[in-house]
Design a protein that fits this description.
17% of the residues lie in helices and 38% in strands. The chain has five helices and 18 strands. It has an 18-stranded mixed β-sheet that branches. It starts with a strand and ends in a 5-residue tail after the last strand.
Length: 292
Amino acid sequence: MRFTKMHGLGNDYVYVSTFDQPAPADPAALSVRVSDRHFGVGSDGLILVMPSAVADARMRMFNADGSESEMCGNGLRCVAKYVHDRGIATKPRLTIETGRGVLTVDLEVVAGKAQRVRVDMGTPILDAASIPTTLPGGRVVDVPLIDLPPNLPIGWAATCGLDPQMTCVSVGNPHVVIYCGDVAKVPLELVGPPLENAGVFPKRINVHFVQVHSPGEVTVRTWERGSGVTLACGTGACAVAVAGVLTGRTGRTLLAHLPGGDLELAWPDDAGAVFMTGPATEVFTGVWDDAR
């Protein structure tokens, strides 16, 4: 099986095209094997680049634990680059079919290769039941943070300057956004799992801790559903942009600093789409021998 390793700001996946080879029989199990950073290729998951009847290509995304997610913003940018650079569709504007519908992407091309990609991520989903969460109310905006296990480090909330409220947004997949004074001091590996798997989130959830520097600039750290700590989360950054507007903490355009790099975000109006702009990078190609 031929594959390509790509990343968006360090959020890395193994990409397999089914335009020129059969689809893997069990992509969920394959994702677990190829994602292993010691015994596999090493990645945050597996993404299939597939033919589509309604768009230039279709994307299916599997986390490192084998679970399938509806969307991946960093992965979508890389799919667009793959489709363009491999000659599948060389237009400056492409359409990609995803778990949340067909999304439009605009490419910045240099010397025939897509370097940066601007994605129309669609209108954010704010209705609590549709995110989904069982928390009461139509929207979950600055509601009290749910109770966390008592075995967390003593005083962790005070150390990171935690604001014990949360805001939930779906950008095709579910996110919870929490603000604090210093994201570097959040014990993410300990706090992320209980939040991801909390009972109020029936499909689990992506967890983001956000430090606001100004109305136009934030720093974000992410615990990603099914993958753990990742260097970037594109849909999560979009959720942070929306949460910032809803809570009055940030404006409608935002520069988000992620551990893997920066994303430019915009939510021009409440009824419209969120836009995300960032790089897409190819690392290497290879052949996976699944019979070994």
